[in-house]
Amino acid sequence: MYYGNLQTKMSEEANMRAAIREAELNMLKSQINPHFLFNSLNSVSSLTVSNPQKAQNMIVKLSDYMRYMVSVKADQLTSFRAEFQNIERYLAIEHIRFGNRLIYEPVVQDLCLDFPIPSLILQPLFENAIKHGVHESTEPITISLRCTLVNGMLEVLIRNNFDPEGQIRKGTGIGLKNIADRLRLHYNSDNLLKIVKTETHFEVRLYFPSVIEKTEML
Amino acid sequence: MKIIIIDDETPARDLIKFYLKGVAGAELVAECANGFEGLRAIQEHQPDLILLDIQMPKINGFELLELIEDKPMVIFATAYDEFAIRAFEQSAVDYLLKPYTQERFVSAIQKAVARKSEKPDSGKQNIQKLMETLDNEPIVLDRVAVKSGSKIHVVPIHEVVYFESDGDYVSIVTNAHKYLKEKTMKYFEASLDPGQFVRIHRSYIVNINHISRIELYDKDSYLVFLKNDKKLKASAQGYKLLKKTLNY
Question: What is this structure's pTM?
């Protein structure tokens, strides 16, 4: 009896370890998108002519962004504040590229800032909003972020409109599944990621519990 | 030399404009922020050269080229280097990988100037060659850009019920429309997801998601019934392939 349980437990652990390794790998792969980098550098190059001050600011933003991306470890816990700041850097850079095609509307309660969340878990969602929203539309895309504490949990809502005609390309599936997997690994709980897609809007809600029931091997 | 810039990012266009100022004889006639605008501007201005980005909303740079009849010379300016760059090297006038220097830009423009004075028609031929090379690249289509009258439609591939050969053209049939495109069946056969589209006959490529049932027709052929009640003929060979794809 005991032996059987142990075996089950060991294989569960092995499965989980494999899942974590895969999540880490996927995350590393997605950390810095080379097209984002090269297009941003092209914008910087342009700004050195039209607005050198802005070019300098963009170089600093880009450096801070990259410094953050290379320094965070896979799936370590960090404060929401640190993630939020990095997302704002990322969006500020994209805003220089896309101008008023990208509108960003954050509403973040101060109480949320020190809440611990897994590193880089939100970043891919903003990248998706850019990729499927801004890249595929000639009209302005609004990305809104709303952050609240609900029953001791941190609720993060990310929402963007999109051009229904531009939505032929698929591919969000794997990224979203990856985020759901990471949440499950961290909190031993399902249903921490909710997705609502309508004709014109894409919305993701994430719930971060405050008590972390980490497994021992994490 | 008449030039049009087509790029969806303002700073990228600004940089090209700045670089162009230093080039004698370069006349910027239009600046476009997406493929649709680009298409209209090309028809209106008949430029000698376009500076073209690839990744853009609505229709991308390749789709844009497919839709132009009188093709100007093309210099690609893009951050994407993973595919078709080799093709550009041979067939487009030049390709610029973002970011690029003014020197590099000017040398690309000079190539275009040289090519124009050499053979006035070579731009066109080169793009034809480029499109052929691109056709040979293993790219899986997820949409098709088609022209009907003066309108451009971007048809999502999952809406296509079947492709039918039609002389020098291929008919692209959806539940609501039928479009003609100057391509070959061979091209579509090679560019579609083989898990979703099957060449069931010399004349037909069918979307398996739109099939309702298949019946034996005579000794060597079958009838494929579609969900919209149309029927297509399948050859023995096509039936075999269909069976394999549907896994039954």
Answer: 0.77
